[in-house]
UniProtKB/TrEMBL annotation:
InterPro entries: Bact_StressResp_Reg, RsbRD_N_dom, STAS_dom, STAS_dom_sf. SUPFAM superfamilies: SpoIIaa-like (SSF52091). PANTHER family: RSBT ANTAGONIST PROTEIN RSBS-RELATED (PTHR33745), RSBT CO-ANTAGONIST PROTEIN RSBRC (PTHR33745:SF3). This is STAS domain-containing protein.
């Protein structure tokens, strides 16, 4: 049944390609919430590629299992369509409709070809429906994976943007932290800080936690790991932004920060860093110059 069905459907697609394309696109465009010339042109191009590729695949394939090697080129085309629709902001339903909109036009041509044989017609429509359900679900699966990759990339970019390493002075870096520290963010913080230490040859890194809402055992461990990594690169760390509540929490948790310099404000930490690097600012001369 599957081989005979494949040959029959391949002939229907090949013999009625232009008619199928026109009806298919009309139904497809009617389901899109938003349209533009560039998007419509891309859909027409992919649809025009899909029909002959479908016919060729049906002719050469021994199975209707779309995961088989014979269906590889068709799967690749559907992957390109799904990934493109993710970038353009289409929904999963709009993505799957590229396949599902072709069902009814094919059913119409099957009725014309097999109208005198109701059993064969019913069987052919059922097999066609199953095949296109599989193809439609494949587009949704690819869409979801591509969407997850976009989200992960955006999260990574946000993490990098939320952990800027600033050079305050020659040999002095500042790393202001805002929000909660978790394992993933700590890794980004550590990498950003170490790269900046190597780039600038800085001796002191100020980690400011004024914007960190709470400090628990996990957050403290992340801070200690970052400090240890910086020390291995030859830079000492100063933690600033230690508020009374955070100081009490750290003591209560029994976190050992005895060998780490801590200050309540970034300004205090900066003064300590200036002294340790041997730098100084003459405020009197600076005021006279401004005057």
């Amino acid at each position: 049944m599957s081989k005979d069905y494949s040959a029959r459907l391949a002939d229907i697609v090949s013999d009625n390609k232009d008619q199928l394309l026109d009806v298919w696109l009309a139904g497809l465009f009617s389901k899109l919430m938003r349209r533009d010339k560039a998007g419509d042109a891309e859909v027409r191009q992919k649809a025009a590629q899909f029909l002959p590729l479908l016919a060729d695949t049906l002719k050469k394939s021994e199975t209707l299992n779309i995961q088989s090697p014979e269906w590889g080129d068709l799967r690749q085309l559907l992957e390109e369509i799904s990934q493109s629709r993710v970038r353009q902001g289409f929904t999963p339903i709009e993505t799957a409709s590229f396949i599902f909109s072709l069902k009814e036009p094919l059913f119409d041509h099957l009725r014309k070809a097999l109208g005198d044989d109701s059993k064969q017609l019913a069987d052919s429509i059922a097999v066609t429906s199953t095949l296109f359900d599989d193809l439609g679900l494949f587009t949704v699966e690819v869409y979801q994976k591509a969407r997850e990759q976009v989200i992960l990339r955006q999260q990574q970019e946000l993490l990098e943007l939320s952990t800027p390493v600033v050079q305050l002075w020659d040999g002095i870096l500042a790393l202001p932290l805002i929000g909660t520290l978790d394992s993933a963010r700590t890794q980004v913080v550590m990498e950003s800080l170490l790269e900046k230490i190597v780039e600038t040859g800085s001796e002191i890194a100020i980690i400011d936690i004024t914007g960190v809402p709470t400090v628990d055992t996990l957050v403290a461990q992340h801070l200690l790991k970052t400090i240890a990594a910086a020390r291995l690169m030859g830079a000492d760390c100063i933690i600033s932004g230690i508020r009374p509540q955070i100081a009490q929490t750290i003591v209560h948790l029994g976190v050992n920060l005895e060998d780490v310099i801590t200050k309540s404000t970034l300004a205090d930490a900066f003064i300590i860093a200036m002294k340790r690097t041997g730098a100084s600012i003459n405020t009197s001369e600076s005021r006279q110059q401004r005057a």
